[in-house]
Amino acid sequence: MAILLVFLCFALVPALFSTAEPLRADLPGRLLRPGTTSAGVTHWLGTDQLGRDVWSRIVYGSRASLTIAFAAVFCAGIIGSTLGVAAGTLRGWVGAVIMRIADMVLSVPFFLLAILTVVVLGPSLVNVVLCLALVRWPRYTRVAYGQTLEAQGREFVRSAVAVGSPPLWVIRKHIIPEVIPAIIVVATLELGLMVLYEASLSFIGLGVQPPAPSWGSMLSDGQQYIGTAWWLATFPGLALFLLVLSVNMLGDFVRDQLDPSERALRS
Known about the structure:
With 267 residues, the protein is mostly helical. Helices cover 72% and strands 2% of the residues.
């Protein structure tokens, strides 16, 4: 949580952690080693091939990674949960169609579907969010579908239906509260994947577009200088590693707290 909070602070108020301009190029100061001082500015993590401060670009790049990750998780969670609850409630051919579409989306390799989506929509921050949401919603759908079916078999839900409670009231008061904990667990675990997927798309040029700082594009640029300027790829990769690790550990903790099966095992 502490590591994740640090990156959240980077994304929310990057100017507090870096005084250098992430887009400012300085060709005479290109590829400076970490700790080098140039023009009165100490570049703690060195500079890139255009003389831009690596530390500043990592700090400002966290905003793109976290913004896209949180937005994609939110959109995919809303779409997938809604469709999952609808499929579990309506059942019949409607539920079958929704679940078969979800299976079809899951069967297509992520990168193939993501690349096709971004190529059609065009590379931009908003389109990356839409792309990630469109390819990840089936996981929420399957979880919400299973939780809805399980909740409908419980006595208090069957009693509410038996006394004539409106279907929407039953969904709002009984089904959704049973689905939300499982969806939160999935969303927390998906957050780390979204960070990696955003970096992967930026790495191949389909994510955040230059010159905006992004960890994926920094890794892509750094691979060309891995033998002469190791810091260009090392530090963005380390930031990506720490963020995904912290999110995954947080996801495990949330799962242990909210997953009924995990609580049963502990008890």
